[in-house]
């Protein structure tokens, strides 16, 4: 499956399209930190026919450009997603977000409600509370940013990410792929930019507006998520009117990889609401 690059304000985003166009609304998949569009690889073939599917690498991740001077906080990513929708001539879409991508999806639903037909948040960050992986990892790395070699920084992150998987073999394969763009000096700079952006204070104001979300919302959580615990899922469900919560047993944080069939079924059900 071939993708292409779109230039949005001087920064190129990589995306690929799949599915079949029909009467159904498009579905846009947004990954989280520090992954890429690869996260959705097993879900895309399971999606129901009649929907245009768009899978994107956020700026600074996967095949997309390095951030350089472009901001990479939640709000900036959300605005670039609006630009992507404009370029692809998508007026409204079901937005599916995982982890930090769920935070971006929330920002879209709050800041651009006319562009969102429904919302699916999978093991998503809650924008008024930092998830464990961000708190633990950012505290170490930001405190020692000038001293910690790139290899040591990535080794620290790798240990944290392994805690998000139930299947250790899948963890090793996927983490290798996700961390590949951050191995050199430019990658190190990108990683530090991402970490600093993850603690951006503007997310609090977004969280305070979740009660205004008026579209169908489905929350999906791995019961064994040790990075963004189920407690945060229940907080989000309470904050968003009418949101449903589907808890998947024996699955960790990276539920799109570990339970693609269950998640594709949940998204299909959301598209019918």
Number of DSSP helical runs? 10
Q: What is the CATH C-level name?
A: Alpha Beta
Low-confidence stretches: none
Oligomer: single chain
CATH homologous superfamily classification: Alpha/Beta hydrolase fold, catalytic domain
> How would you state the average pLDDT, rounded?
90
Q: Proportion of β residues?
A: 15-25%
Number of strands: 8
For the biggest β-sheet, the strand order reads: 1-2-4-3-5-6-7-8
Helix and strand content put the structural class at: alpha/beta
Overall morphology: globular
- Give helix % range: 25-40%
Which architecture would the CATH scheme give at its second level?
3-Layer(aba) Sandwich
Number of domains: 1
Order of helices and strands: EEEEHEHEHHHHHEHEHH
For this structure, the CATH topology is Rossmann fold
Rounded to an integer, what's the Rg over CA atoms?
A: 17 Å
The biggest sheet amounts to: 8 strands, mixed
N-to-C CA distance: 30 Å
Structural description of this entry:
The chain is α/β, with parallel strands linked by helices. It is 39% helix and 18% strand. The chain has a single domain (4-130, 201-271), classed as 3-Layer(aba) Sandwich (Rossmann fold). Strands 1-2-4-3-5-6-7-8 form an eight-stranded mixed β-sheet, sandwiched between helices. The mean pLDDT is 90.
């Amino acid at each position: 499956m071939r993708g292409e690059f779109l230039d949005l304000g001087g920064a190129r985003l990589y995306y690929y399209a799949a599915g079949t166009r029909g009467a159904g609304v498009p579905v846009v998949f947004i990954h989280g930190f520090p992954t890429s569009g690869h996260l959705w690889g097993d879900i895309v073939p399971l999606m129901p026919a009649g929907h245009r599917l768009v899978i994107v690498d956020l700026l600074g991740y996967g095949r997309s450009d390095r951030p350089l001077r472009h901001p990479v906080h939640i709000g900036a990513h959300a605005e670039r997603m609006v630009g992507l929708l404009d370029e692809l001539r998508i007026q409204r879409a079901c937005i599916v977000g995982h982890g930090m991508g769920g935070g971006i999806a929330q920002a879209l639903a709050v800041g651009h409600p006319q562009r969102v037909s429904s919302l699916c948040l999978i093991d998503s960050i809650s924008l008024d509370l930092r998830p464990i992986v961000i708190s633990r990892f950012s505290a170490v790395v930001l405190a020692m940013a000038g001293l910690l070699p790139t290899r040591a920084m990535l080794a620290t992150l790798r240990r944290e990410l392994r805690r998000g998987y139930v299947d250790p073999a899948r963890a090793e394969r996927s983490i290798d792929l996700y961390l590949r763009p951050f191995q050199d000096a430019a990658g190190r700079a990108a990683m530090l930019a991402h970490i600093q952006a993850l603690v951006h204070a503007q997310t609090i104001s977004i969280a305070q507006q979740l009660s205004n979300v008026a579209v169908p919302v489905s929350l999906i959580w791995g019961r064994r998520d040790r990075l963004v615990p189920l407690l945060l899922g229940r907080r989000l469900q309470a904050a968003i009117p009418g949101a449903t919560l589907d808890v998947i047993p024996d699955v960790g944080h990276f539920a799109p990889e570990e339970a693609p069939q269950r998640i594709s079924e949940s998204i299909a059900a959301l598209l019918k609401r």
